[in-house]
Each structure stands twice: as C-alpha cells, then as structure tokens.
Amino acid sequence: MPIIKILPHPEYCPQGASISAPAGTSICEALLDNKINIEHACDMSAACTTCHVIVREGFNSLNELDETEEDLLDRAWGLEPNSRLSCQAILAQNDVTVEIPKYSINHAKELH
Question: What is the pLDDT of residue 56?
C-alpha cells in the first residue's frame, strides 16, 4: 500500500503525518479517511479547487490530469507545476508527499 506523507499545515495537520491508503484511492479520500479534514466544498466532484494540494514527491506516479482538472487548477490559490486536486489525484503503488496550501479560494474569501 502506498504511503502519503503530509507536510505540516497549521490547521489541517499541524504535526504532519504519514498515512497509508490502497492504490486506486484519491488523495482526498485517503486524507479524510485518516481524519485530516481537508476542504472539499464540491464533495469531490471536480467542481471547485478547495482540495488543491501540491505534490512534492511522487507526482508522476499519480494518474494523469484531465482537461477539467487542468482548467480548475488555473483558479487555485498558490498554483505550482506539481499542483493537483486531491479528489482527482489517484494513488498508484508509489509513495507520495503532499503539501496542503496555506489558503484555498474558499478560505481566502472567508477571511476577507
């Protein structure tokens, strides 16, 4: 089973964590199943960017981005070349390291 290493995030995972999840599971599902309550405003239907993560290691082991995800990521706060929507990023056999950005579109609006 692949391991997901989550880098520390002050709200969602202050200490960071390492969790395992079966191949074929989305990163978002794995985080939620392990009590890391990442935002997912569209209920994982690829209609928003609140579950945006940056894949620091293992990006190429995930499934390929489709056009819908690419278009949505253009609106994500803190977009980087290795950004993915965690609800669309499906684990294979390799381990990955992810960073949850400090803000999401949803979070930024609530605070301003």
Answer: 99
